[in-house]
Design a protein that fits this description.
Layout lengths: L3 E4 L24 E5 L6 E9 L7 E3 L23 E5 L6 E9 L5 E3 L30 E2 L4 E3 L6 E2 L7 E3 L7 E4 L2 E4 L8 E3 L10 E3 L9 E2 L6 E2 L8 E4 L2 E4 L7 E4 L2 E4 L8 E5 L3 E4 L11 E4 L5 E5 L6 E4 L2 E4 L7 E5 L53 E6 L5 E8 L4 E5 L3 E2 L12 E3 L3 E4 L3 H4 L17 E4 L9 E4 L1
Parallel strand pairs: 34-35
Antiparallel strand pairs: 1-36, 2-3, 3-4, 5-6, 6-7, 8-10, 9-11, 12-13, 14-15, 16-17, 18-19, 20-21, 22-23, 24-27, 25-28, 26-27, 29-30, 30-31, 30-32, 31-33, 35-36
């Protein structure tokens, strides 16, 4: 019988009537002991009682903070291991204590370990002296000053280790150097006429630059670490290259430079124009001029187009299905598209419909070839004109008209999927049929466990087709699983 069953997840409490182990084994070293609470039936561990693999798997206590006044040892080791800590008996508390730093070393000698903390030692000492502090001695060879080195008193620097002496760097009064924040740097007065410190910050003296007119109006630049004329000196219509300013002409400007002078281009006169005087005077070319005797007829070749004209007796005449006019009189014609188009149309290129697109007739077939089909609506309605209760989507996977379905089973009232061997022409699908499977659905609820297990799953019409659905409750008790499956 299908019912709601709790799924145990990591970290949750398990409520089971009995546990049967198919494989048992010998406890290993420090295997933790498990106990069963006879009141609740739950299993737990103390966290301090363990098995030991030695001496016949005996029990021992760990991490208990046990205090003992008398300790008896049945055996002692032959050798003291490296870094074995020294134990002492406290005469006041009669307890056993260990120092924080006194250990045996690999040579079976006592030593204070710096990695375990500082120690205090009195008496003679033999060693390299590393880690010692507060030791005062006299140098075998004294330190003396050299050029540019002085003592805090200003005298010649000398140090033999018997007293504290501060070392300073001596600078000349006009040496261009000064101290700032206990460091040596260039003097702020070093930058003078036309020079400034260009480092970031108000007291950065890492680089020096030439000072130019603010805003770049000097026409100079320091690009590539050299002083040069700035390219900004070239204004509208001028270009600057390799120190030379030139007039910048567009390729279709109608201007040219000849003999270092600006003039109209030779190719400026087009159809109907010519130079009367070379590069200075333009006139109409009479071989191209339109006269009053020339007329042009405008007609429409389709009923889907309409033609209108500004009709005046002087320049426009009605001529059959069109108009004729003299172009010299500047006639105006307007073409328009009828709101209702007749006849068949074939669009060989892209067609963009910015408004609503309505098909009143029957769309017998549609083949859409696109990488991405973008649908602006929130929901896509399918099966609106069919009599069956099944519907969904199909992906064709084979040349023999087979595919994989995502469908809704109207008979069992549940969503399902299929493998890729179903005929794409099939219109009826059941989640229990061969090659089909029901989708696993998850219901998020704040219902308590006692009420949740009595509810009917959301999808399916009978227990046989409701299996596999999940319930997840958000009000599970601490350490209790919140996942239930209907099975």
């Amino acid at each position: 019988m299908a019912v709601w069953r709790k799924i145990l997840v990591s970290g949750s409490n398990a409520h089971v009537a009995a546990i049967t182990a198919s494989v048992t084994g010998t406890p290993t070293d420090k295997s933790e002991v498990i106990f069963r609470d006879t009141t609740t039936g739950r299993f737990f561990s103390t966290g301090s009682i363990f098995f030991t693999a030695s001496n016949g798997n005996q029990l021992f206590l760990d991490k208990t903070g046990l205090t003992a006044f008398n300790i008896s040892a049945s055996g002692t080791p032959d050798d003291v291991l490296t870094d074995s800590q020294v134990l002492f008996r406290n005469p006041n508390s009669t307890g056993i204590e260990a120092t924080s730093s006194l250990f045996f070393n690999s040579s079976d000698q006592l030593e204070f370990s710096s990695s375990q903390g500082a120690g205090v030692f009195s008496g003679s000492f033999t060693g390299d002296g590393s880690g010692l502090t507060g030791v005062i001695g006299t140098l075998e060879n004294s330190l003396v000053g050299a050029n540019g080195i002085a003592s805090s008193s200003g005298a010649i620097f000398s140090y033999n280790g018997t007293k504290e002496v501060q070392i300073t760097v001596a600078t000349a009064s006009n040496g261009g150097l000064e101290f700032q924040n206990q460091g040596l740097r260039l003097a702020s007065t070093l930058a003078h006429q036309g020079l400034y410190f260009s480092g970031t910050g108000t007291d950065n003296f890492t680089s020096m630059s030439i000072a130019l007119t603010p805003g770049g109006t000097s026409g100079l630049t320091t690009g590539s670490d050299e002083l040069a004329i700035d390219s900004s000196v070239a204004g509208d219509g001028l270009t600057f290259s390799n120190g030379v300013i030139n007039i910048g002409l567009a390729g279709n400007s109608g201007l040219s430079v000849a003999a270092d002078e600006l003039r109209l281009a030779n190719g400026l006169p087009g159809d109907g124009l010519e130079y009367a005087t070379a590069n200075s005077v333009l006139q109409v070319d009479p071989t191209f001029a339109v006269t009053s005797s020339n007329r042009v007829i405008f007609r429409t070749g389709s009923n889907n187009l309409t033609l209108a004209a500004t009709s005046t007796p002087d320049n426009i005449e009605v001529n059959g299905d069109g108009f004729s006019a003299r172009l010299i009189d500047n006639p105006t014609f307007t073409y328009d598209l009828n709101t209702t188009l007749t006849g068949d149309f074939t669009f060989q290129n892209d067609v963009n419909v910015e408004g609503n697109f309505t098909v009143s007739g029957t769309l017998t077939s549609a083949s859409i070839e696109t990488e991405n089909l973008n649908v602006a609506d929130q929901f896509v309605l399918v099966n609106s004109g069919s009599t069956g209760n099944d519907g969904g989507f199909v992906v064709q996977t084979g040349a023999n008209d087979t595919g994989a379905f995502l469908f809704y089973d109207g008979l069992n009232k549940r969503w399902g999927v299929s493998d890729n061997g179903i005929q794409v022409s099939d219109t009826t699908h059941m989640i229990t049929a061969s090659g089909h499977a029901a989708l696993v659905t998850t219901t998020i609820t704040n219902t308590s466990e006692s009420v949740l297990i009595t509810e009917t799953p959301l999808f399916g019409t009978a227990a046989t087709n409701r299996s596999g659905q999940l319930h997840i409750t958000t009000v599970a008790l601490p350490n209790e699983s919140s996942v239930f499956i209907y099975a």
